[in-house]
Design brief:
It is a single chain. About 85% of the residues lie in helices and about 0% in strands. It has helices at about 5-20, 25-45, 50-100.
Length: about 110
């Protein structure tokens, strides 16, 4: 049984697509500018590892705070959903109480 050629075909298609997109001057210039910026950033952080560490820690902390906030919001929403589930029962009880308050018992 031969190996699947799917992965190789995907890689080849991506390479051909990238090569064709480089025929456009604006795309080429944008790619070169982006590559230069990435190279500069990599060089800077390679020589300033402490700053990179601080930056990563800040991003991790921000992600942690965001996750906690989302978790709190989800818990709040889940609580509200539970309240809404009980609402029809509560309304039904109120309707029955109102009916019984306005209904005059029959005297026989």
């Amino acid at each position: 049984m031969g190996q699947s050629k799917l992965l190789a075909s995907i890689v080849a298609g991506a390479a051909v697509g990238a090569a064709l997109s480089m025929l456009d001057r604006a795309t080429r210039e944008k790619t070169i500018a982006t590559t230069k910026k990435m190279k500069e950033a990599i060089s800077y952080y390679a020589s300033n590892r402490e700053e990179l560490q601080v930056l990563v820690e800040e991003k991790v902390l921000a992600a942690k705070v965001l996750c906690e906030s989302v978790s709190e919001n989800v818990n709040t929403i889940a609580g509200k959903v539970d309240e809404f589930k009980d609402l029809p029962t509560t309304i039904q009880g109120m309707i029955e109480d109102t009916k019984s308050a306005f209904t005059v018992p029959h005297k026989e």
